[in-house]
Amino acid sequence: MTHSLVGLALGELVERALPAAANPVLARTRRRALLLTGLLASNFPDLDLILTPLLPAPLGYLIHHRGHTHTLLYALPQVALLLALAWLLWPAARRLVRADRLARHAIAGTALLGMVLHLSFDALNVYGVHPFHPFDSRWLYGDLVFIVEPVFWTALGVALALARRGALRWLMLALFTGLPVLFTWSGYLQWGSLAGLAAVALAVALAYLLWGTRAGLHAAVLACAGFVGVQAVAGQFARGQVRAALAEAAPGSRVLDIPLSSFPANPLCWSFATVSTGPAAGQYGVRVGVLSLAPGMAPVSSCPARFGGVPGSAGTAVAWKHSETHSLAGLRALQRSNCHVDAWLRFARVPSLAGGVATDIRFGAPGEPNFSTLPYAARAGAPCPAPVAAWGYPRADLLGR
């Protein structure tokens, strides 16, 4: 939904930035073409999901989703394919681009920017992207916003609803104001988060009422950018708290990575993981927990349990949920001896290994399988997975690479 709203908002903004078309028929076609181009371009890279059957689960999803189609280099042929399909399948759009040079450039620019925005929004969360492959195949992580962020839905959804007319406007407004209420009632959002989302919706609506549709869209974009900025500052404070807590829990450890994921629409509550070496020689540790940046106002116990909160930890700033230590030599030997683990380690950022099963505990507690869980011991004698993309190992530091 986020990618779709971003693409539609892009198309709407480009349309309203262009001079009015003299021909009413071409004007309608231009607007539809820009909206559809923005919508499709902002979702196009996720077509890599059709490649997931190339490898056995979960490796197909882990290796091929957010893969080649999520790189800047491969954005160019995707833009060419999207525009070619529009040219072949949409006669009205074909007539438009033949007749109107400005529309032709606007549609091509919208397609390219839609692809880039897809990568940019994917880069904001803890999952990560590697946009500069093949020149740099390392994963990059924003660690700023929840992977399904209602602030984006509310701001962009309300702005786009107000740009519509008739029943569609009211249906969209009901959807994008009703969803946060439903999520709060279901325990996924704090009441403070709901109040913040209501403030965003009111700000966008006020800009629309005072200055029109374009101002409403601009207010929505500013709300999204402002929220990301707030998350960036809050994330720095969160990392500082985690480092201090780890130094107290495991003195002498050397921190390698602190993956962060905020709770939805909530700059105060964060889920985190740590990857560290030591304190004993030849060992590494992974830990997960939850923290609050304002424990006096919103203790860890108030962070929604539906998204990993820790009930019963009232008044605390940091609550540890799990920790484990392993041998560095054992991890490296397993990578060399098990090609399934080697492929899995091209994705895993916080590797948990227990009982012949590997899980990236960014996405769930050990013992609770998630989409990253690999039963590597059971596959030790199976043929090696192929094709495996040459992404950089997130834990190259542990592997000695």
UniProtKB/TrEMBL annotation:
Keywords attached to this entry: Membrane, Transmembrane, Transmembrane helix
Pfam families per the UniProt record, alphabetical: YdjM
Top-rank taxon, per record: Bacteria
InterPro entries noted in UniProt: Transcription_regulator, YdjM-like
Transmembrane segments annotated in the record for this chain: 71-90, 102-121, 141-163, 170-188, 194-212, 219-238
Name the record gives this protein: Inner membrane protein
